[in-house]
Amino acid sequence: MAIRVTPKLFQRFNQITKALSSSPSSLPVLPLNFDEKPESFVVKPEAETGTGTFQRSSSSSSILDFEDTQKLFSTFSNTKLIRSVFNLNMASIDPVVDMGIWVMRSRLLEVPGFRQAILGSVKHSFYEQFVAGKDLKETSQTVEKIYGEGLRGMLNYGLEHAYDNQSCDQNYNTFLNTIESTKFFPPSSVSFVIVKISAICPMSLLERLSDLLRWEKQDPSFKLPWKQNSLPILSDSSPFYHTPEKPDPLTQQEEQDLQLAHERLTKLCQRCLELNVPLTVDAEDTKIQPGIDYLTYNSAIEYNKLGGKTPIVYGTLQAYLKDAKERMLLATEAAKKMGLPIGFKIVRGAYMSSESKLAASLGFESPIHNTIQDTHDCYNECASYMLDKIVDGSGAVVLATHNVESGKLAATKAKCLGIGKENDRLQFAQLYGMSEALSYGLKNAGFQVSKYLTFGPVEEVIPYLLRRAEENRGMLSSSCLDRQLMGMELKRRLKAGFGM
Ligand SMILES: Cc1cc2nc3c(=O)[nH]c(=O)nc-3n(C[C@H](O)[C@H](O)[C@H](O)COP(=O)(O)OP(=O)(O)OC[C@H]3O[C@@H](n4cnc5c(N)ncnc54)[C@H](O)[C@@H]3O)c2cc1C
């Protein structure tokens, strides 16, 4: 089904989301002074301001309360606070991160003595901070703990790319075990199981599918005999530089491999349906994302009809991409016409440097927004649009972000729309070990909040840890607010301990 994003559709979208896009969305720069209170914002809903715009204010009546650190970190032991402050501070020092990244990528990891020493030190620093456990047993303890504190868990075995059917089968079994394990967790403590398509479909095939889908978008007469039901995957503004020439059709072997990939994903979705736990597919880089979206939408069409208004299969939208908003509109409109609830996890995106490098090496403009403000606007607009979809019953969203402004804006709009904790179709989410203040602030404000719990043995989660190291580096990273508030709380406890 071909749906075009007409100027009218865009105009309507822009009207709906104008309120969010007009607000500043970057995290305030916070000094590393534990006495100084962070600037507080209040995002006033339309009803209060009468203008339909969101306003900044220094009032303490913000939807998220970060000022009462005692309440915010009430479930944190002193040890956990000290460890988090230490790890997050180390991760903010560029030379430390550079050195860590160099070591983790170096051949030293292949030298037996060094390997043990390196993995040991990673385990007691970054790993402890960002990884929920080495296996399902340890992870279940983490889930129980955060569930006791009012948060839910998104289970993500830290698998990366697979290159043949044998590894895809192994990865499939790991995902299936993860889904099966949810039977033994406290009811509703697990909000999602995460699946990476590049772990259950060989990488070379995902690249071929993506090339063929791009070519089909450019030339609709180009037929893809293997293509099953899907939602629109690409838009007129999607980049095409990855596919400079007409790709060969899939070989018989590739078609068989595709069938196997479909079967793996379908079986995972079927089990999720039976156990009533939704599945979210992660987004990866643009080279393979069309193939990922194709498989995701195909399963969403089959399974989302079966779970009532709450989708079983969610895709992920990366708001740092220039074509993200347009693709989201096309997919949601098409799903609506099919009477299908659609679910998205919305993120900013974690592959920024590799995306820009690849585009530059091919002599093309980066697919990432030209300014960070454009990314913030895109994130907030897509979030706002999907919140409206919750209200009209056609969509669901996971707002996966560490950005405090995006959290506040969405929380304020959700409150105005009457979407609260009882509604499974809105979930806020942060990575385990990051943005604790935002997670607990949103939970205290009355929303469902999940932690994205990556687990696995230390050597298997190194690519994930490298992405976290990149993300947390620098004094302005999203861990800045946590470092400051946790430091304030430690100081408060110290003073209370000495009766000061
Ligand atoms: C629960 C969860 C699930 C996730 N799943 C995925 C996933 O499936 N796929 C994926 O790719 N990522 C995923 N991520 C990672 C997410 O994309 C990163 O956390 C993201 O890079 C940080 O964005 P933020 O919303 O936390 O905002 P912020 O903390 O405000 O981060 C902003 C960052 O965006 C970057 N940025 C984006 N656009 C620009 C631009 N135009 N110019 C300059 N800088 C820019 C900068 O590095 C900046 O530091 C997930 C995150 C969470 C919390």
From TrEMBL:
<dbReference type="GO" id="GO:0005739">
    <property type="term" value="C:mitochondrion"/>
</dbReference>
<keyword id="KW-0560">Oxidoreductase</keyword>
<comment type="function">
    <text>Converts proline to delta-1-pyrroline-5-carboxylate.</text>
</comment>
<dbReference type="InterPro" id="IPR029041">
    <property type="entry name" value="FAD-linked_oxidoreductase-like"/>
</dbReference>
<dbReference type="InterPro" id="IPR015659">
    <property type="entry name" value="Proline_oxidase"/>
</dbReference>
<dbReference type="GO" id="GO:0071949">
    <property type="term" value="F:FAD binding"/>
</dbReference>
<dbReference type="GO" id="GO:0004657">
    <property type="term" value="F:proline dehydrogenase activity"/>
</dbReference>
<protein>
    <recommendedName>
        <fullName>Proline dehydrogenase</fullName>
        <ecNumber>1.5.5.2</ecNumber>
    </recommendedName>
</protein>
<dbReference type="InterPro" id="IPR002872">
    <property type="entry name" value="Proline_DH_dom"/>
</dbReference>
<comment type="similarity">
    <text>Belongs to the proline oxidase family.</text>
</comment>
<keyword id="KW-0274">FAD</keyword>
<feature type="domain" description="Proline dehydrogenase">
    <location>
        <begin position="141"/>
        <end position="477"/>
    </location>
</feature>
<keyword id="KW-0642">Proline metabolism</keyword>
<dbReference type="GO" id="GO:0010133">
    <property type="term" value="P:L-proline catabolic process to L-glutamate"/>
</dbReference>
<dbReference type="Pfam" id="PF01619">
    <property type="entry name" value="Pro_dh"/>
</dbReference>
<keyword id="KW-0285">Flavoprotein</keyword>
